[in-house]
C-alpha cells in the first residue's frame, strides 16, 4: 500500500522518468486494478471515513453537523469505490476511442495504464479529506496534478503522431474534468445533506452491518 503512495508521488515529482519505468514494466489492466489502484483507493477511503466519523460534515441541506457512524461510513465508501472504478473503466474506454479517432492503434492495456496512473494524484489527494475541509479543495488540487501527469503520459503511453498529441491531450483533459467533476458533485451533494432519502437509505443499510 505504501508503494502505491510512493509511485503516485513520483508521478507528481518526476513524471518523465516514472512513466518510463511504468512502460518498461508493462503491467496488465488486472494487475493495475488489483495491486496498484485498489490499495490506493482503500487507503483514501479509510482516511475519509475516519474524517466523517470524527469531524463529520456540515450539512447545509439539513442545517446541522452530521457525524457518520461506522456502518454508514463503510456503506458510503464502498459505494464511492464502486463509482470510482466505473469512472476509471469509462475513462479507459474513452481514451481508446479517442485514440482511434486520431488514427492511433492503441490497446486497452495502454488506455488503462494512462487512466489508472494518470488519475492516481487525484486519488492520493483524497487523503486530505481526513480533515474537516470541503472535498472540492482535494478535487481541485488532485485534478490539476493529474492533468500534469497525463500531459506527460500521453506521448509516452499512447504514442500519437506529434501533431496529434496536444489535441488528444486536450480532449482527454475535457473528459477527465467532466467525469470526475460530476462524480465530485454527486459526492458533495450527498455529504452536504441535500438528499435526505439517500442518507436514510445509507443509514439503514449501515445499521445492518455488524459494527
Secondary-structure-based class equals mainly alpha
* Straight-line distance between termini: 25 Å
How many strand elements? Answer: 2
In angstroms, what is the radius of gyration? 18 Å
Count of separate structural domains: 1
Mean pLDDT: 92
Largest sheet geometry: 2 strands, antiparallel
Shape: elongated
* Spatial arrangement of strands, main beta sheet: 1-2
H/E element order: HHHEEHHHHHH
- In percent terms, what proportion of residues is strand? under 5%
Structure description:
It contains 9 helices and 2 strands, in the order αααββαααααα. The chain is elongated and about 55 Å long. It has helices at 2-13, 15-25, 29-54, 70-101, 108-118, 120-124, 135-157, 162-191, 196-207; strands spanning 57-59, 64-66. Strands 1-2 form a two-stranded antiparallel ribbon. Strand 1 and strand 2 (64-66) form a beta hairpin. Helix 3 (29-54) packs parallel to helix 5 (108-118). The protein has one domain (2-207). With 211 residues, the chain is mostly helical. The longest helix has 32 residues, at 70-101.
Briefly say what this structure is.
By secondary structure, the protein is an all-alpha fold. It has nine helices and two strands, in the order αααββαααααα.
Main attributes of the structure:
mainly alpha, 9 helices, elongated
List the helices and strands and how they pair.
Elements lengths: L1 H12 L1 H11 L3 H26 L2 E3 L4 E3 L3 H32 L6 H11 L1 H5 L10 H23 L4 H30 L4 H12 L4
Antiparallel strand pairs: 1-2
Helix pairs in contact: 1-2, 2-7, 3-4, 3-5, 4-5, 4-8, 4-9, 5-7, 7-8
